[in-house]
Amino acid sequence: MADIAKPIVALLEPLLPPRLRAGVPLVPVVRLAGVIGLATPLRPGLTLSSVARSLERAFSMRNARAVALAINSPGGSPSQSHLIFRRIRQLAEEKKIPVIAFVEDVGASGGYMLACAADEIVCDQYSLVGSIGVVGGSFGFPKLMEKLGIERRVYTAGERKVMLDPFQPEKPEDVERLKAIQKNIHAHFIALVKERRAGRLKGEDAVLFSGEFWTAETAVSLGLADRIGDLRGVLRERFGDKVRMPLVSIERGFFGRRVPGVELGEGGLRRTALAEDLISALEARALWARFGL
Known about the structure:
- The chain is an alpha/beta fold.
- Helix content is 39%, strand content 14%.
- It starts with a helix and ends with a helix.
């Protein structure tokens, strides 16, 4: 029966859409762009929940020869970066499909962790890559409050509950505790990079994992990336001129993104904290500004 069906399939195949033809190579493209984990109605950000469906759709496409990740991110939340990284690796291993990362402007910090989920990392000549480190920052207002005559009243159960409170003087033991947490996260990040780039890293640890970032040529020489190129050119070179590269977009609601500054509450529509959106935008702007963007 199968022998009889083969000629019929061969006859009908030219009439099928390109995406259903077995002979046409297919490489779905998933775009991972923006700050990771920094999500408000005004600035959605990259989180596992926002990209999981598009990743699953890409890896489930029939006849997919590989999955391409178009990455443009200065980093953000370590946990969300790792959750997205793990989902990509799980799908790649389950479907036995290779992954190629294409770094655009920036693949740094958490953005570089996403690139490490790929089997190959390709950068544009002007891409910025690296920043394998951990950073945290805040502000302090105790002197301003004293000058304005404002008294801070906080009631807690747990002596560390107000650690690094910006409205109280900084305590050395709190800073030491925070740095210990950062050091632990940094160690896990280093181990992840060494595992995924095993046999390809060429620089000293003190250089590679200092938090510094480099242009593509230097990143390739250090083994942090594999080559310089662009998504279309590399995929056509690898899979032929007829390769299809459909963009698997992140899904939005029926009416698109939620209206900035407005959300549903128990009493109907109510305004969200626009100050939170503004702070989120400033934080995102600061992350991009580190790379001159």
